[in-house]
Amino acid sequence: MPGRLKVLFRLLTSVLNAVVDPLRKNPDSDSLRLSSAEIHTTTNDGDVGWGRRPPARLRCPRCGADCEQHHPLDDIDCPRCVAEFSHEEFPELELLFLSCPVCGTRMEHGRRHPEAFDVPEWATCHGCRYHWEFKHSY
Ligand SMILES: [Zn+2]
Ligand SMILES: [Zn+2]
């Protein structure tokens, strides 16, 4: 009798293992994990807030040369005529474009409330799909 029970038990565990194993070693679960990692990366591929604004290329109002403002709180220095502008003067300078911080591509930017803001409120990279959003709190 105990021998038959043991056999039954072994049979049951092998059946259980057969059910559990595909879940453990299923290559599909690996690809599932991969795709959720991809989703994670896509949601990370973006920034919000002026402090995380992508680097800007501006036109020097004095000589017309291109000036790079990497960080939104950096002073804007013209490399040609050595004019200096504070970051608060950003809206007065002509914005040429923002550069994607991920792949360096020139981004498309725009405003959502042109009557209220004279700075870009969003920018999107068509190269790598990085997106930046000003997102003010009203
Ligand atoms: Zn200049
Ligand atoms: Zn990009």
Give a quick rundown of the structure.
The protein is of the alpha+beta class.
Task: Characterize the structure shown.
With 138 residues, this protein is of the alpha+beta class. Helix content is 30%, strand content 21%. The protein has two helices and nine strands, in the order ααβββββββββ. The protein has helices at 2-25, 27-44; strands spanning 46-48, 56-59, 66-69, 76-77, 84-85, 94-98, 108-110, 122-124, 131-133. The protein has a four-stranded mixed β-sheet with strand order 1-9-8-7. A three-stranded antiparallel β-sheet has the order 3-2-6, with no helix packed on it. Strand 8 and strand 9 (131-133) form a beta hairpin. It is rod-shaped and about 95 Å long. 12% of the residues are buried. Residues 31-43 have low confidence and may be disordered. It binds zinc ion (2 copies). One zinc ion binds next to loops.
Number of domain modules: 1
Helix content: 25-40%
Rough shape? rod-shaped
Mean pLDDT: 83
- Identify the strand order in the major beta sheet: 1-9-8-7
Topology:
Blueprint: H1 2-25, H2 27-44, E1 46-48, E2 56-59, E3 66-69, E4 76-77, E5 84-85, E6 94-98, E7 108-110, E8 122-124, E9 131-133
Parallel strand pairs: 1-9
Antiparallel strand pairs: 2-3, 2-6, 4-5, 7-8, 8-9
The chain binds zinc ion (ZN) (2 copies).
What labels describe this entry?
138 residues, alpha+beta, four-stranded mixed sheet, three-stranded antiparallel sheet, 2 helices, rod-shaped, binds zinc ion
